[in-house]
Design goal:
The complex is a heterodimer of chains A (453) and B (165).
Chain A lengths: L22 H6 L4 H6 L4 H11 L11 H6 L10 E6 L8 H8 L1 H15 L3 E6 L4 H16 L15 E6 L9 H8 L24 E5 H13 L1 H5 L2 E2 L2 E2 L1 E8 L5 E6 L5 H8 L9 E5 L8 E2 L3 E8 L2 E8 L7 H6 L8 E6 L4 H15 L5 H19 L6 H10 L9 H21 L1 H6 L11
Parallel strand pairs in A: 1-2, 1-4, 2-3, 7-13
Antiparallel strand pairs in A: 5-6, 7-8, 9-10, 9-13, 11-12
Chain B lengths: L4 H10 L10 H12 L4 H11 L3 H8 L13 E6 L2 H5 L2 H12 L5 E2 L5 E6 L11 E3 L2 E3 L4 H16 L6
Parallel strand pairs in B: 1-3
Antiparallel strand pairs in B: 1-4, 2-3, 4-5
Helix pairs in contact in B: 1-2, 2-3, 3-4, 6-7
The chains are: A alpha/beta (453), B alpha+beta (165).
Chain lengths: 453, 165
C-alpha cells in the first residue's frame, strides 16, 4: 500500500518559500484569528473542546491533554501557571526546534489560547540552553505580539491579561521531566519531585497549580480551537487523534520531519517511501521508534497478538514495517511512540557500540538524585565502554541486563526506565551480538562504519 | 565584579519577571557568563548577594548544569554533537578533524587560546546530522570535509583585525 499524503497542520507553513518568523507574515496567513475568536468564548468551553479532541501529549508520555487540564486545582485560590516545555532534548527529536525557529507565533497563539482556557495570567517558555537563537526569536515574537495586543494586559480588549516570558535552561536533559523543569524554573537543581504529592496540577511551580505542556501539544490546541474538538478527533485514528510529527534521523536517504495523521502510516511506509529507504548498498537493521529511551525494534522480528479493531478483537502478525505509527500500537508491541524521534540504524552499525553511545548519554544526564539510576547508568556505560575499548566477555550482556533490571521502577522519575529500556531491549533483541562481540571486534569494521563511543 | 552597563540593565529587567526572586538565578548566570566568559567564585558570590541567597545556592547550579563553566575557554567555542544520530552519521570523525585542524585537545583549548573543542549531548537537529555549534550558531551536515572548511574560516577570522570579526 502506498504511503498516505502528509497532513501538514502544525508544519503547514514551515519550509514554505517566503514564510518568515515575524508577526506580519503570520498575520498575512490568518494568524491570531483563532485567538480572537477564542477569547469571546467561555474558558470552560475551550477546555471541553480539548477534552473532546482526544489530544495526547507530544512530549513523550502521550498523556491526554484535556485530562491534564481537568486535574488542575482551581479551588485553591492560588495563581495557575503554564510552562511551555521547549526543552526538546530526547535524542532523535527535533520537531520543536522547527516550530520555535520558523513559526514562533503559532506557538504563542497556542499558549495564549491555553492560558485563556485555564485562566493563567503568567506563563513561561522553558527553552533549552542550546537554542540561544531560538530564545531570541521567541523574545522578539513576544514583543511583537505584545505591541499588537495579543499578549500582555487587556488582550484584544477583553480585560483578560497574560504575560509570557522566556526562560533558558542550561544543558540538562532532566529538565524535560516536568517536575525537574519546575525545580529548575524555581532556580534550583532540577531534581524531579516525588509524586504523590507533587503533581504539578496541584503542587507545581511555587507550589501552585501548574500545567506543563510540550511545544507541539500547545500548537495542536490552536488547531483544536479552530476546528472544534469533535472535528479534530476525526483526524488520525481512535484514541490516537490528530497529526504527529515524526522526526526521522540516521541511516535513511531523506531524514527530516514529516507530519501525518496519527496511526495512518506504518513504519515501513515512513522509512521506505517517505524517507527513501536505506542508503545505497545497505539494509535496515534496527530502529528506535520514539526517542532514544524507547525500546529498539529489530528488522526481521515478528509481533503477534490480539488487538482491538472497533468493538471486536482481531489477531495481528506484524513485522517492523507493518507497525502503525501510533501511541497504542507501539505500546502494544512493547515499545513506545514517545516523542516521535525515529532513529534508524543499518547493517553497518554494531549494536554493542550503539548501546555504548546511548549509555554514555544517560550516564551523563542522570541527575544523581536516586542511587539505582545514578550508579546503574554509570555502570552500564562503563561495561559497554570496556567492551568496546577493552576486554569484551561473553557474559557481559547478562551483566548489563542485571544492572538495567535493578533500575526501572526504583526511581523518583521515569529517567530510571528511560536509561534501562535501551539496555534491556538491545540485549533481548541483539543478545547474540553481545556474546560474539569479542570475536567481531577482531575483524575489520564494515566499510563506512562510524565510531560511536 | 566589573559587569558591563548593558549586562546590569538586563539583570535588573529580568528579576521582576519572576514571582519569586530565586527563579532569576539561571538567567543571571547566563547573563554573567555572556559578559565575563565564565562563572568565577566572585561571580557566584555577586549573584547570590544580588538575589538574597547563599553562595551555595548559586554554586550548586554552576556545578550541575553543563553549560556553565568555572574557567575561561577559547575565543571561539566549537560544540560537536556526540549523541546517537550524529555519531552514526560520523560526528566522531568530525570532532577529530576539528581537533586536528585547530590543535585543540578534546574538551580543551588550543595552545594559542583561540579555540575550544568539545563534545556535547544531543543538540536536537538529528535530521541534519552531524551537527556542530560554533559559538551560538548551528551548522548542519558537518562531515570531516566541512569541518576543514569551517576550521579554515575560523583561522582566517582569527587573523583579521578585531573590528572585522
Amino acid at each position: 500500500m502506498p504511503a498516505p499524503e502528509q497532513y501538514r497542520m502544525i508544519f503547514r507553513h514551515i519550509d514554505e518559500p517566503g514564510y518568515t518568523s515575524d508577526l506580519a507574515c503570520y498575520l498575512r496567513n490568518g494568524g491570531y484569528e483563532v485567538l480572537r475568536k477564542a477569547v469571546q468564548r467561555k474558558p470552560e468551553e475551550l477546555v471541553d473542546e480539548v477534552k473532546k479532541s482526544g489530544l495526547r501529549g507530544r512530549g513523550g508520555a502521550g498523556f491526554p491533554c484535556g485530562v491534564k487540564w481537568t486535574l488542575l486545582d482551581r479551588k485553591s485560590g492560588k495563581p495557575i501557571y503554564l510552562v511551555a516545555n521547549a526543552d526538546e532534548s530526547e535524542p532523535g527529536t527535533f520537531k520543536d526546534r522547527y516550530i520555535v525557529y520558523k513559526d514562533p507565533h503559532q506557538l504563542l497563539e497556542g499558549i495564549m489560547i491555553t492560558c485563556f482556557a485555564n485562566k493563567v495570567e503568567r506563563t513561561f517558555i522553558y527553552i533549552r540552553g542550546e537554542f540561544p537563537e531560538g530564545a531570541r526569536i521567541l523574545e522578539r515574537a513576544i514583543a511583537e505580539a505584545r505591541a499588537a495586543g495579543f499578549v500582555g494586559p487587556n488582550i484584544l480588549g477583553t480585560g483578560y491579561g497574560c504575560e509570557i516570558y522566556v526562560h533558558r535552561g542550561a544543558g540538562a536533559y532532566i529538565c524535560g521531566e516536568e517536575t525537574g523543569l519546575i525545580e529548575s524554573m524555581e532556580g534550583k537543581r532540577p531534581y524531579p519531585r516525588i509524586k504523590p504529592p507533587y503533581f504539578p496540577a496541584v503542587l507545581g511551580l511555587y507550589q501552585c497549580p501548574t500545567i506543563v505542556n510540550n511545544v507541539e501539544t500547545l500548537c495542536h490546541v490552536k488547531h483544536i480551537a479552530e476546528r472544534g474538538g469533535e472535528a479534530y478527533s476525526k483526524i488520525g485514528t481512535p484514541n490516537n487523534t490528530g497529526t504527529r510529527i515524526y522526526c526521522v534521523s540516521g541511516h535513511v536517504r531523506r531524514p527530516g520531519c514529516y507530519e501525518f495523521e496519527v496511526g495512518k502510516i506504518t513504519m515501513g511506509q515512513l522509512l521506505n517511501e517517505v524517507c527513501g529507504g536505506p542508503l545505497p548498498g545497505r539494509s535496515f537493521k534496527a530502529v528506535i521508534p520514539g526517542g532514544s529511551s524507547a525500546k529498539v525494534l529489530r528488522f526481521g522480528e515478528r509481533f503477534k497478538g490480539k488487538r482491538k479493531s472497533g468493538a471486536t478483537m482481531v489477531d495481528y502478525d506484524w513485522g517492523v514495517e507493518d507497525i502503525p505509527m501510533d501511541f497504542d500500537s507501539l505500546a502494544m508491541i512493547g515499545s513506545m511512540g514517545g516523542s516521535g524521534g525515529v532513529i534508524v540504524m543499518d547493517d553497518s552499525v554494531s549494536m554493542v557500540e550503539a548501546l555504548g553511545n546511548i549509555n554514555e548519554f544517560y550516564a551523563h544526564e542522570s541527575c544523581g538524585q536516586c542511587t539505582p539510576c545514578r550508579e546503574g547508568s554509570l555502570w552500564m556505560k562503563r561495561i559497554t565502554s570496556r567492551m568496546v575499548h577493552g576486554l569484551a566477555r561473553a557474559e557481559d550482556g547478562a551483566l548489563l541486563k542485571s544492572v538495567a533490571d535493578q533500575i526501572a521502577g526504583r526511581t523518583i522519575c521515569a529517567f530510571g526506565e528511560a536509561c534501562s529500556w535501551p539496555t534491556q531491549s538491545f540485549i533481548a533483541k541483539f543478545g547474540d551480538e553481545f556474546k560474539a562481540y569479542a570475536a567481531a571486534k577482531a575483524q575489520a569494521r564494515p566499510d563506512g562504519a562510524a565510531e560511536l563511543i | 565584579m566589573n559587569l558591563k552597563p548593558e549586562t546590569l540593565e538586563k539583570i535588573d529587567a529580568v528579576i521582576p519577571r519572576y514571582p519569586q526572586i530565586r527563579s532569576a538565578a539561571l538567567p543571571l548566570l547566563h547573563l554573567v557568563q555572556e559578559d565575563q566568559g565564565f562563572i568565577s567564585n566572585e561571580a557566584v558570590e555577586w549573584i547570590a548577594q544580588k538575589l538574597g541567597l547563599q553562595p551555595i545556592n548559586i554554586y550548586e547550579l554552576v556545578t550541575f548544569y553543563p553549560m556553565f563553566r568555572q574557567k575561561p575557554i577559547g575565543r571561539r567555542h566549537i560544540r560537536v554533537c556526540r549523541t546517537l544520530s550524529c555519531a552514526i552519521m560520523g560526528s566522531y570523525r568530525t570532532c577529530a578533524e576539528f581537533q586536528r585542524q585547530l590543535g585543540a585537545p578534546l574538551g580543551g583549548t588550543s595552545p594559542d587560546g583561540e579555540v575550544t573543542v568539545e563534545f556535547v549531548e544531543c543538540l536536537a537537529s538529528c535530521g541534519t546530522a552531524p551537527v556542530v555549534m560554533i559559538d551560538d550558531t548551528l551548522h548542519e551536515k558537518v562531515d570531516a570535509a566541512r569541518a576543514r572548511e569551517l576550521s579554515d574560516l575560523i583561522r582566517a577570522q582569527a587573523k583579521a583585525p578585531a573590528q572585522q570579526r
